[in-house]
Amino acid sequence: MSAECCGGDAVAPDGAVEADAAEGAVRFWKVRELQLAMAAAVLLLVHFAAGLADADVAAAVAAAGALVVGGSTFVPGALRALIKGRIGVGLLMTVAAVGAVVLGQLAEAAMLAVLFSGSEGLEEYSLARTRRGLRALLSLVPDEASILRGGAEITVPTSELVIGDTMIVRPGQRVATDGIVRKGQSAVDVSALTGESVPVEIGSGASIPAASINGTGALEVEVTATATDNSLARIVHIVETEQARKGASQRLADRIAAPMVPAIVILAVGIAAVGSLLGDPSIWISRALVVLVAASPCALAISVPVTAVAAIGAASRLGVLVKGGAALEELGRITTVALDKTGTLTRNRPQVITTIAAEGATPIEVLAVAASLEVRSEHPLAQAILAAAPGAPAVEDMDTVTGAGITGRLDGVKVRLGRPGWIEAGPLVADVESLQDAGATVVLVERDGRLLGAVAVRDELRPEAAGVIQDLRGAGLGVMMLTGDNARTAAALAGEAGIEDVRADLRPEDKAAIIAGLRADASVAMVGDGVNDAPALASANVGIAMAAMGTDVAIETADIALMGEDLRHLPRIIGHARRSHLIMRQNIALSLLIVVALVPLAIVGALGLAAVVAIHEVAEIIVIGNGVRAGRTKTTALSPIELPLRPTPMIDSPSNRSAVHS
After folding, report:
1. Nearest of 495, 500, 561, 551 to residue 525 by alpha carbon
2. pLDDT per residue as tens digits for the range 415-472
3. Is 340 a catalytic residue?
4. 10 Å Cβ neighbour count for 231?
5. Which of these, 228, 322, 378, 603, has the minimum number of CB atoms within 10 Å of its CB?
6. pTM here?
């Protein structure tokens, strides 16, 4: 909970919430603020029921109980903050409640306490879910690691690793902490940390981050960072820092209340003091208290929440999960959108895009031999090639050459598949380079020592991506790509999508730093789907996760989640947020206008308490009615895009190699 929210210091989560979060679940009903808000609401209902039964004493006791229980969530914090010189909505609510009680409006004070304590509970629940997401991130690191000490291999807890230890990382295992490969070669999946769409080949001297998944070769890795200072630990630190920053700054009502609260209190005290010197003290003290109620933020308190609730409900019908009014409000103000590449602009599903045959071979033959070699392979590109040529028979005597490729026998003839350099591209060298420039990963196929051809695999752009980028730019938003993938691949995909500003070869902390720099001059939304995007999602004014393909960490860290793989939800939710933000501003303006109009009338005695309360109630009804409008979804129709069920690999022959498909 933010300090400005109720005027208190940022505190640790309640014991029940923290215990549940540690178990991987956050129980809605175990958040202390929500428990108290619900208890206060029950007491308030008892008050109304007792009033209908003419049980005045029971009604008064129930209302007082609701006020005490609900107020306990924000009054103590507001008073502590006041002592430290900080003011916020909590103090304004406290002053209004006290004023209502002094004037005998106990039920109104209780209602205010119930509503505000409920909003505080929902915020604490959201923060608890974020803490659970961070724990899920840390769980990517294994609990134990195998190391060499004293010439023997032993297993130790990851927390006991020290710099200089030598880890043994077997095929399929996750790396326990950051290190440098000292022995072995392998293809390593580093997508969790860097966003690289295809596993990378590494060997002696290469750096390898924590949580990377080793491929087919065993590795000896020298530890270069402890468990508390590795890549994932740094991500957690960035996320925690940025989430705290957001909690302290994204409350529009707090920003309004900061100058409003002292002005109201000073005005009321001044009226009581000056009036008592010049006239009847009882009259002017009474008027001062009426001024406090007239300036109470009843309509202001609900102006943003009611709009947010309606808009968030409508967003869910658009296929978007919005985590609170602050996120929706901020999304309506963004001026720049930064997008990750892998899993966001692309599907994170590498596909065969081109097959080129050398002289004397056919493209179908090249693809068939490649698929036969990949049937039992753990090569990173195997699934893409097998999907393009299903049903291929497996080769015999298959052998994996770590970091290079695969060998075997097909119909008694030796065949090979591997990277350029291990197999010479020969006459296809120009085609291979063109494909690599287009962002593809290329493997060459050889039979009986003769080059058959090349197969190109690439993580393709989402079909709707280019249209989405055009819509975003048409709405006046700046668009950029931030990716951990290599510059060649990033530039190729960005060109197709229509993105001119491309930042590639980025680590998670690099993305966060870029977002922080942009945030100094603009309101930035970051769209991503992986663990490597978590710091940037947290650093941005608004973090948006691709939920269907996103990791739990990305979804929990983000403020907004697109509940599907269709990127067209992005411009729709931005348009919806802009409209909702406009309605929020209308409600706030009306709420403040009511206060500005009532206070002078209360000062001169033109309005008594009953009239002030009645006007406030009417204003609240108007604000609620206007806020409900945000629940109506208005989306701009987009041109339909046909989404293929399965990509069809494009096949080239020597006669048309000049037209390289990408």
Report:
1. 561
2. 999 888 899 998 999 999 888 888 888 899 999 999 999 999 988 888 899 999 999 9
3. yes
4. 26
5. 228
6. 0.60
